[in-house]
Design goal:
This protein is mainly α. Helix content is 61%, strand content 3%. A hairpin with a 2-residue loop joins strand 2 and strand 3. Helix 2 crosses helix 6 (121-144), helix 4 (77-88) crosses helix 6 (121-144) and helix 10 runs antiparallel to helix 14 (283-294). The N and C termini lie far apart (72 Å).
């Protein structure tokens, strides 16, 4: 019996080792000599992109897989510029997470944290690929529009692109340290776009970190509590002055009218169901709607 238990334990141990080995899908390599990092990153880029047929693969192949956004494992000026652009792209009606914002920041932080003990060149290569993918996505979507179907379930017709030119544009932008300038040059020049972008930036700056409670229906709570809740909601977006006397219904109705006019509702000052539903839209929802209008 003891022998059988020993054999069973050995089988379980071997099986665990095999599972662990099979689950190890990444080829992490830590390089201590910083002078060897770029060469090692190039090797990993070539391996990671070997089965791809994409703009990113074509770009790195033309560059002989030399790192474009980092040097010795750390983000260079172009990499920092592109990441900063990703962080701020919501001002163009785009969503930073679509451009691998979190993944790039995580990789960058991990590399810098362990830099003195060695550079994980696999992580650097993956960061390079994410940054390159992000550049091509930004360049296309700033000029031709963001594919909102990804977020809102809307089917849009195919749009023209200038993919064949983007590789040379990226190459030139890297040489001239002009990543941000190139991406800015892709923005539409129409007055309507500029106005919408300014409204979006102003609203995002003012309200993106603000939340408000859901306004209940008038029939669900006592009238006094409803007017108090309405007052608090109107104050959040400055539809009424903060010096208002509690339960001043005339002033509250005037604030409701302002809100209704802004959002193309019948301006009767009555907080009915349509007005209440509009008041309950979150800042995030409003920002998404403005992004769609920019689209």
């Amino acid at each position: 019996l003891h022998s059988m238990q020993m054999r069973f334990g050995l089988i379980v141990f071997c099986a665990a080792v095999i599972v662990a080995c099979n689950n190890s899908t990444t080829n992490h390599e830590v390089v201590n000599n910083k002078q060897d990092v770029n060469e090692k990153v190039a090797q990993h880029l070539k391996e990671l992109l070997s089965d791809e047929k994409s703009l990113t693969q074509q770009f790195f192949q033309q560059q002989k897989f030399t790192p474009a956004f980092s040097d010795s494992g750390l983000l260079n000026s172009n990499g920092k510029s592109l990441l900063a652009y990703i962080d701020s792209c919501s001002s163009y009606g785009l969503i930073p997470s679509d451009y691998f914002q979190n993944e790039i920041h995580t990789a960058d932080s991990l590399i810098r944290k362990n830099y003195l003990t060695g550079v994980d060149v696999e992580t650097v290569a993956q960061m390079e690929i994410k940054l390159c993918n992000a550049f091509f996505l930004l360049a296309k979507q700033i000029k031709y529009g963001h594919t909102v179907s990804q977020h809102f379930g809307i089917n849009l017709p195919a749009r023209p692109t200038d993919d064949n030119e983007l590789i040379s544009h990226l190459t030139d932008a890297l040489k001239q340290n002009s990543i941000s300038a190139f991406l800015n040059s892709r923005q539409p020049k129409s007055e309507q776009y500029i106005q919408l972008k300014n409204v979006l930036n102003a609203y995002t700056k003012k309200y993106s970190n603000i939340t408000w409670d859901t306004l209940p229906s008038k029939d669900s709570i006592q009238p006094q509590l409803f007017w108090q809740a309405l007052q608090q909601r109107l104050l959040k977006e400055n539809w009424i002055d903060s010096s208002i006397v509690a339960n001043d219904t005339n002033t509250l109705k005037a604030g409701v009218k302002k809100f209704q006019k802004q959002y193309n509702l019948f301006p009767d000052g009555v907080p009915g169901n349509r007005t209440r539903n509009a008041l309950n839209k979150t800042p995030r929802y409003r920002i998404q709607q403005m992004c769609m209008n920019i689209e």
